[in-house]
Write a structure and sequence with these properties.
single chain; alpha+beta; Methyltransferase, Cobalt-precorrin-4 Transmethylase, Domain 2; Heat Shock Protein 90; 6-stranded mixed beta sheet; 4-stranded mixed beta sheet; 19% strand
C-alpha cells in the first residue's frame, strides 16, 4: 500500500469499509472489526486517527504491528491473511490494517462471529456487530454453494499449453513489491496459482483462465472487449475507430484503458499556481480507471452473449458490462456510498494484488468525487435486462477539444460482429436448421452454439427465422438477411 492510498482513506472518512481507531494498544480493539471485514467485503482499519479524522499517531508502531499480526493469526478462525503496515502521514505514525474479503465464511474472532453493517447500530453506534443466527445460517448456505460460482468451475484450458507465464511472472512481481501476499514458492507457477485460488489439482479454474490464459476468448468468447469512438453523439453511421481486445484480463484492461485515453478529447486548463496551460483528458483519468476496473471485476462472466463495451462520444463516455447490480445494490444509494458486493471475488482479488484495485469498497464514491473536482456533471449508473452502464458526461458547455485520432474516410456502418458470428455467416447458404449449422461449424455443444453464435446473429438482425411466429418449431430454419449478406461480404468484425 502506498502513502497516497492512506491519505485517500483519510480524506474519504469512515464508512462501511473504513474505520478509524485512536487507541489500538490491544488486539481486542481491532479484532472484531477485522472479523467483520472478513465476513463482508474487506476493508481498512486506520489506527492513530480519531473519529473526526484528526491524526493522533501511534507510539511503538513497528512493534505493535508485529504483535497484531501474530495476535490475529491466533485469534481468527479459520485463519486469514491480514496485513498490518506502518505508514508515516504528515509526521504521524499510523497503523493500517488491510483486510481482504474472506473466502471461507463464516470467520470468528475469539469464537464470536462479527459482521459489518451498512449503518451504525442505534444503541451502540457501531457498524461492527455480532452476527445473529439468521446471518450465520446464510453464511453457511453461501459457503455450501460457493464452488458453483462460474469463476470457481474448472476450465478446459491446458496448464502447460494455454497458460501465459508472463502474466504469472508480472503478478508475482507486483505482489512481492507490494508485500500484500506471501507465496509459498514464488518460482513455482503451479503453487502460485493455487495460492491465488485460481487452480486446483493441476487445473485452472475459469477465473484463472480469464486472468492467466494466453487466449481465454477461444473458450469464452464473452471475455472479448469491444471499444468504439463515434463522430456524433449517437451510435449512428460514423465512427473514428473500433477495436476488439482479447487476451489475459490485466493485459486487456491496460490496452482498453490506453484506447480510452488515446481517443478521449483533451481540454486546456490553467493552473492557479503558475498560470501555465495544461492539457488534460476531458474526463479524470483516475475515474476512468476506477470505472473500467469495476467493469472487469464485477461483470457476469457466465453470460455467453455478454462482455464489456466501450463507447466514446463527443459529449460522453459509456462503459457497459454484462450482469445486473448485485441484490440490494441500487443506483439511488450511490450518493452516500455503497457496499462493494463482489460477484467474482477470486478475479477481483488478483486485480487488487496487481495494484489496479483498492479494497476500500468506495470505487463509486471515488468516481463521483473525481468528476465533481473536475467540474463535470455527476456520472450516471443504470441497468437493463442485460447489464450495467456507467456514463461520464462532458461539461454542459464543452470546451474546445482536440481528439487524438487520425482523420480517415468515414466508413459505412458495420454492426459489432464477433468472430463466431462472422464464421457462422460464412457457412450459411439458403435455409438451414440449427443442427445443419452446428454440423457445418463442427460444434457439438448446443448451448454454446446458441449463446455465442445464433442469438447474437439474430439480435443484430444478420440472420432471421423462416418461421418467426414458431421459434421452437422442429421445422425452423435460419437464413441470411440483407444486412447479414452485406456484413459477410465486407468480412469485418
Amino acid at each position: 500500500m502506498k502513502v497516497d492510498t492512506v491519505r485517500e482513506l483519510l480524506s474519504l472518512g469512515e464508512g462501511q469499509s473504513v474505520e478509524f481507531k485512536s487507541d489500538c494498544r490491544e488486539i481486542g480493539v481491532i479484532g472484531p472489526t477485522v472479523c467483520g471485514f472478513l465476513n463482508t467485503s474487506g476493508g481498512y482499519i486506520v489506527c492513530g486517527v480519531d473519529e473526526k479524522g484528526g491524526l493522533t499517531g501511534i507510539d511503538r508502531a513497528a512493534g505493535l504491528a508485529k504483535d497484531f499480526e501474530a495476535g490475529l493469526q491466533r485469534s481468527l478462525s479459520p485463519g486469514a491473511l491480514v496485513s498490518v503496515q506502518v505508514h508515516e502521514v504528515w509526521g504521524k505514525a499510523l497503523l493500517v490494517v488491510e483486510v481482504p474479503a474472506g473466502k471461507d465464511l463464516p470467520y470468528a474472532f475469539e469464537n464470536v462471529i462479527y459482521i459489518r453493517t451498512g449503518e451504525a447500530n442505534i444503541r451502540t453506534g457501531q457498524t461492527t456487530q455480532k452476527a445473529d443466527v439468521e446471518t450465520i445460517r446464510d453464511m453457511v448456505l453461501r459457503k455450501q454453494v460457493e464452488p458453483e460460482r462460474w469463476e470457481r468451475r474448472f476450465s478446459s484450458a491446458d496448464m502447460n499449453r494455454d497458460l501465459n507465464f508472463n502474466e504469472v511472472r508480472s503478478t508475482v512481481k507486483a505482489v512481492v513489491e507490494s508485500g500484500r501476499f506471501p507465496f509459498r514458492d514464488s518460482d513455482n507457477p503451479i503453487m502460485i496459482l493455487e495460492d491465488l485460488s485460481v487452480s486446483k489439482y493441476g487445473r485452472l479454474t475459469n477465473g484463472g483462465d480469464v486472468l492467466f490464459g494466453a487466449n481465454p476468448t477461444i473458450r469464452y468468447p464473452q471475455t472479448r472487449v469491444r471499444a468504439a469512438v463515434f463522430r456524433t453523439d449517437k451510435a449512428g453511421d460514423t465512427y473514428h475507430d473500433m477495436k476488439s481486445y482479447e487476451g489475459p484480463l490485466v493485459s486487456v484492461l491496460e490496452d482498453v484503458y490506453a484506447f480510452i485515453l488515446r481517443n478521449t478529447p483533451t481540454t486546456s486548463r490553467f493552473r492557479t499556481t503558475d498560470l501555465k496551460r495544461q492539457d488534460e483528458p476531458l474526463y479524470p483519468s483516475n475515474a476512468i480507471r476506477e470505472g473500467l476496473v469495476n467493469a472487469f471485476a464485477h461483470r457476469d462472466y457466465s453470460d455467453f452473449s455478454g462482455g464489456i463495451i466501450i463507447h466514446i462520444y463527443p459529449n460522453r463516455l459509456e462503459i457497459w458490462n454484462s450482469g445486473r447490480f448485485p441484490e440490494g445494490v441500487i443506483p439511488s444509494t450511490f450518493k452516500a456510498g455503497t457496499l462493494s458486493v463482489l460477484r467474482n471475488p477470486d478475479i477481483a482479488h488478483v486485480i487488487y494484488l496487481r495494484g489496479y484495485m483498492e479494497k476500500v469498497g468506495r470505487g463509486i464514491t471515488l468516481i463521483q468525487k473525481a468528476c465533481a473536482e473536475y467540474g463535470l456533471p455527476p456520472p450516471q449508473w443504470s441497468e437493463d435486462d442485460r447489464g450495467v452502464t456507467l456514463i461520464f458526461f462532458a461539461p454542459e458547455v464543452t470546451p474546445e477539444v482536440t481528439p487524438e485520432v487520425t482523420p480517415e474516410v468515414t466508413p459505412e456502418v458495420t454492426p459489432e460482429v464477433t468472430p463466431e458470428v462472422l464464421r457462422m455467416l460464412s457457412v450459411l447458404e439458403g435455409d438451414l436448421s440449427r443442427q445443419d449449422l452446428q454440423n457445418l461449424l463442427d460444434l457439438k455443444d448446443r448451448e454454446h452454439f446458441r449463446q455465442a453464435y445464433l442469438q447474437p446473429a439474430l439480435r443484430e438482425g444478420l440472420v432471421e427465422m423462416t418461421l418467426p411466429d414458431k421459434p421452437r418449431s422442429s421445422k425452423q430454419r435460419y437464413r441470411l438477411t440483407g444486412k447479414g449478406r452485406s456484413v459477410r461480404g465486407g468480412g469485418r468484425s
